[in-house]
Specification:
alpha/beta, 3 domains, Helicase, Ruva Protein, domain 3, single chain, 52% helix
């Protein structure tokens, strides 16, 4: 499915497969994504003038703010980064500078485009990997019909199974390799290994420079001095099963075949025109001037953030990046502050404000049952690997949702995240003794839920620590 051609209704329908409720937020992000497609189809003289309408999501934790943004980026095939506003500080203070979020976005774009290019080259890379494995196994194709491994072992006087030689023998061996009949054989191959990252000690806020030095050392390869320092990429002979060797060599070959200049150009373009930056906890920097102590740089962070959101040029190691058409989605609970507490210039750069609703018991029931990656499906699959047939009845799911909703009301409301805690507590004993229940069918009903969780809910002090 090509997300670039999806209508807003279709985008919302895709998001509904993973996120329950929050129709207003889904509608807002769907329109923002569709507007990107529309922008690509207007005249060139107007294209640069159309800027994205940035969004502020307002709602408590655990209601789906981050998940909506992440799923949207994955659906669109767009580079995506999540940053926390509270990690940034005003220039002159210890902490990360706001430009680093753009550099992180470009890194995400390079990784995304490189993976796409590697997928396109996967078939060619696998053929090259198979050739290396066949050579190492002794299935020669040269005029003398000897693979390297075969020749070496004969010189050493070591015995080896007779391998069919020549082109016909090699083709038969390749067919066997692809059929999996050689998977369990041992083979010695040379594979690339990354050394321990060389990270010099630098002042806070200089992580990007340290990363650049590390990559420079990796490019220098098998330098013995750098190897002593842990830097530089290495090639090392390893004895592996054939199946694992083919997989590792395929990745190595695909990575080597990629045209990094082309990847860089495409990544920069995608970061500038399709990138999404999710700024979480923006309410933590919402404060008027005149603060003291730890709050002194809040207004300064907002002022530093403003040019990035407005549109500016940021220098990265891959080249200059314009942020004019990057989509910014900010989010925060805004319990102690309001959107109006942000400086007016920054407020104006987030024209779309969407309030997300707290989750009710009915929503928690749907979260447990409906999404493709629901918690119930995850636990059933996990215990299925141990041979346990776990069945959770509809009534039991209702009971779990009720317990989670009650815990959210009596303590901090952490939304859907409460379900993780409740489900872990519920299935703790089964998970611990799963190997003893191999081949059994276990049915979780409301009675079992109450037995496992009733004591915890009854003791309010205990529930604060456990749920």
């Amino acid at each position: 499915m090509d997300a670039r051609n999806l209508t807003p209704k279709e985008i919302v329908a895709e998001l509904d497969r993973y996120v329950i409720g929050q129709a207003k937020a889904k509608r807002a992000v769907a329109i923002a994504l569709r507007n990107r497609w529309r922008r690509q189809h207007v005249s060139e003289d107007l294209k640069d003038e159309i800027l994205p309408k940035n969004i502020v999501m307002i709602g408590p934790t655990g209601v789906g703010k981050t998940e909506i943004a992440r799923r949207l980026a994955r659906l669109a095939g767009a580079p995506f980064v999540k940053v926390e506003a509270s990690k940034f500080t005003e220039v002159g203070y210890v902490g990360r500078d706001v430009d680093s979020m753009v550099r992180d976005l470009v890194e995400a774009a390079v990784k995304l485009v490189k993976e796409e290019e590697m997928d396109k080259l996967r078939d060619r890379a696998r053929e090259a990997a198979e050739d290396k494995v066949l050579d190492a196994l002794g299935f020669g194709s040269g005029a003398f019909g000897l693979g390297l491994r075969s020749a070496v072992q004969r010189v050493r006087g070591e015995s080896e199974p007779e391998r069919p030689q020549g082109t016909a023998g090699r083709d038969r061996a390749r067919a066997q390799l692809r059929a999996g009949t050689l998977d369990d054989e041992d083979v010695e191959v040379e594979v690339a290994e990354k050394g321990v990252p060389f990270m010099p000690i630098m002042a806070p806020g200089m992580e990007d420079m340290a990363q650049g030095l590390n990559e420079m050392m990796n490019q220098l390869g098998n330098n013995p001095i750098l190897s002593m320092l842990g830097g530089g990429s290495k090639k090392r002979k390893r004895k592996l099963k054939v199946k694992e060797a083919v997989q590792l060599l395929t990745e190595d070959e695909a990575s080597r075949m990629v045209d990094m200049e082309r990847v860089t150009r495409e990544a920069l373009d995608r970061a500038q025109n399709a990138g999404i930056i999710f700024i979480d906890e923006i309410d933590k920097i919402a404060g008027r001037e005149g603060g003291q102590g730890p709050d002194v740089s809040r207004g300064g962070v907002q002022r530093d953030l403003l040019p990035i959101v407005e549109g500016s040029n940021v220098n990265t190691k891959y080249g200059m990046v314009k942020t004019d058409h990057v989509l910014f989605i900010a989010a925060g609970a805004f319990h102690m502050a309001k959107v109006s507490d942000l400086i007016p210039e920054l407020q104006g750069r987030f024209p779309i404000r969407v309030e997300l609703n707290p989750l009710r018991r009915e929503d928690l029931v749907r979260i447990l049952k409906e999404p493709r990656n629901s918690l119930v499906k995850q636990y059933v699959a996990l215990l299925g690997t141990e041979g346990v047939d776990l069945q959770i009845t509809e009534d039991a799911i209702e009971e779990v949702a009720l317990v989670a909703a009650e815990a959210n009301e009596r303590m901090e409301n952490i939304g859907a995240r409460r379900l993780y805690t409740v489900m872990e507590r519920l299935l703790d004993e089964i998970s611990f003794n799963a190997e003893e229940k191999h081949g059994q069918r276990l049915v979780i009903d409301p009675k079992y839920v109450r037995e496992r969780l009733e004591d915890v809910l009854a003791d309010e002090d205990l529930s604060k620590y456990i749920l």
